[in-house]
Model the fold of this input.
Amino acid sequence: MSNAVDAVMKELADLGWRGFQAVNGLVPDSPSATPGWAPGPLPKSYERSKPPLGWPRETDSLCPRCVIDTRTAIIRGERDVSELVHGHVGEIKAKIQEEDGRLYIRKTCKEHGDFEDLLSIDPEFSRIIEERYPGRDFRTLGDELVHRHGTSTIKYGRGTVLTIDLTNRCNMMCNPCFMDANQVGYVHELSMDDIKEILDASISFKPRRQMTVQFSGGEPTMSPHFLEACRYAKDVGYFNVQAATNGLRFALEPEFAYQAKEAGFDLAYFQFDGVTNNANSHRHITNLFDVKQKAIEVMHAAGIQILPVTTVVNGVNSSQVWPILEYSLQNCDKLDGVSFQPVSFTGRDEEVTDETRRRQRYTISHLAHDLARHTGGKIDPYRDWYPLGAMGAFGALADHLRSLNGPDSASNSFGSVGCSCHPNCGSSVVLVANSKTKVWSTVTQFFDLKQFMKDISVICDSARGKELSMTQILLSFVRNYDQSKAPSGFTLGEFAKLFFYGKLRGAMGKEIHEQDWRILWVGGMWFQDLWTYDFRRTEMCVIPYATQEGEISFCAYNTGVGWRQIVENMHMVAKTKEWFETRGRHQIYAGNKPVPLEPRRKLPVLDAAPVVPPGAYITETG
Amino acid sequence: MTSFGEPAPSQPASEGQTISQLHLRAERSTARKVVTKHRADGADGRWVEMPSWRFYRQVVRVGLYLRERLHIEPGDRVALLSPLRTERLVADWAAVVQGAVVATLDTRLPPETLGHALTQLAPKVTFVPGPAERASLLQLSHPGAQAGPVIAFDSPPADGGAAKAAPSEGKRANADTWAEVLDLGGTLDTAERALKFRAWARSVRPDALALAYTEGSNGTTEWRFLTQGEVLRRIDDFAPRPGDVAYVAAPHLPLSTLLALRAFVGDGRTTVVIGTPGREVEEIAELRPNLLIAPSDIIERAVAPRRLRDSAQDLARTWLKRIRSLGPMRPRSTPQNAADGECLRDVMTLDGTRVVPRNRTTGDAP
Done:
């Protein structure tokens, strides 16, 4: 009976939508609003540009050997950094082409010969991902002082995550480590004034969008300014503050988790390599998984969201892909999904041999097929995966709705989060899971996301008033929802709560409600390395590094020409040896030893407290 | 009227009860968002708040600095020669939580008496308000007077990049200013060091001396001491409730006020507002504190019944100010209705005399 009612609702909503559009299509589109945060009118879907997609295609790339030579020469002072800004150092053309059911990037350097690497093991999957890309964000305006990195300059949009390296010091000694923490012989650590300047500069141009500020490192919680930095990011106006952390500090010092939450810290982008101590052994801590579990417990108790992030290396930990996702599903009350990051050969790994690189290369298409195999097809590579840039459609809808509040409304001081990165940069699947029953499903199993995104484009393009826009959203939402394919116990009402209080409000920077059903994001973010480098991706990066030398594309900073080493050398605060002499050594957990986790005790807050013996370790508020 | 705060005969403290443990529990409770509040210098005079996360981090940083750089051990004396201010509260708390004895020096003492007091006390470090006070203390010529390293809360006026360069780019091991203390104490602000700080705090015994004071301001420098357990027992007399605001206007800090401050800072629930000299009555009307500690003349003006015309003027002034600043428009109380029990529960003069009975709102008499 219930199913019949749902089916009737769906049909009625579909009829309503079609009827509405029959009239709506006869009326010319209303002009788009121009909010104060934007460099121009909100773009219609047909006005959005796209990078060259499909294949075969030619693009601009880098010679893996020339780049390393040039970078080394700049750091030694033999060549000037301005060559990177005004020249085309190491740039060569590359071709992306399909061959034997695989997608390859190939390029030739006159000096160093041919280079080839794998981009996809399933061109059909890659084609679908590119097809679902809705288009770029605005071109940036007034950013000459922030984006000034020659051919690596970011040209589009505002981004989604603003990464700020607080320090290159770390309390672990991993292998691999893309930034060579503790190994480079100098300390690069931002002062609070540096952090303030960087955050102030980040809102100095248009579009001024909401972003997640992600403090990174090294281990960012080792910076003495970590808490102040969280607070200042919120003061500037950003709605979400994250840290890319290994979680050791939270496991060791639960008080710190509470203080961090109070200071504005929202989400731990949490290094997580596997669900056993053995699967973490390459981090050289024998009880690392136990430590991770402790950190999860502590952070969750303090109200900090947690998103595990796993670097996937083929043949090294690719077998952990499903166990990690399964762990997230089982702990979906505490974890918000998983971010898988197929390996990028950078830092110390730039010296990788061709044979090892071929053997260890892992792509988004590998991930999609691995998850399909482990779940018996429940996560379908062709139905369920969307480019990260597809989230830009929801950002556009949020922008449209907020613009209806009037140009001077306080809600218009920032645009919504606008993820519009290149479709080759990453893809994701959205799941719903019940934190009590552990039932889960992909959203796209019961919701026609592709059609919904088309409907959103119609709503934004026609740009009607608030009531008419909301009516269309509701009609589209209901007509694209199929109760017969939804997981057990999941209803349209639950989905509406998740969508309107979660997805859309999240994009608008509002609080997300707690409930049994949770949305989990399973992402694949594939950073470039010197072999896969594509300047069309760099120029529309949405996860820039904010540094003392402006904001630099993630890949241009960590790989590509390697701005990281150049910036850190320019702004190092001390040689490591001098630092240790004046500040003392920090603890590093390594050498295949365990982290000493103390037994847990409960302690009431104030009254009639039991005596705590010296050395006792307290982990929970009573 | 009841008086409290007078030194009472020592009694054995209940076992396990120390200020240090009170601190550890308060730190974990996160029951208050703001620990202290004071007006900024300058024309706008806005309120500056110290959130609890910052307060506790600074306590750890300063504590680590005292312990690791100055090698302060339990029982060592730390002198505070400063009027009430946020940094003073942090320094006091950081020292006492680790078992140091915090001695409050009266800022009104003439140089010779001050020298005599320092000779008796022999502090391992002294905190003063600014560079000028630091310079004069270092020049104190009293025989035997030792203030230890002297740290100024305010930094000297910045000239170019000099202030920024030291100590982060230099190789200094010790600090002259508060900013340097925070920097050097907390640069390696790691879990291990924070845990070490807490382990030290847990190891402090109830019979360890915690507070040194002199009675009156008549020139005597006879030091008296209270242990951790005694301090804790005396501050039990205060009964702040979650969310209480304690307004403290104290040009000098006698024992009763010091105890009250420890009660408010240590309970993890009370916000301490540091009054601005000359603006106390206005601020009390604006903030409607639940607990008030001030000299009797200020209390008289703020709490005693007043003429209707004055009240109306105060009310009008307050409203006009709020309208101008476009702040929240909820009605504010006047000193009168505050004193009538709308929110003010406890009022104490600096010498420890209560002028409004506790539980006024419930009609209980002391």
Q: What stands out?
A: The mean pLDDT of chain A is 89. The longest helix of chain A spans residues 2-24. The CA atoms of residues 564 and 618 of chain A lie 39 Å apart.
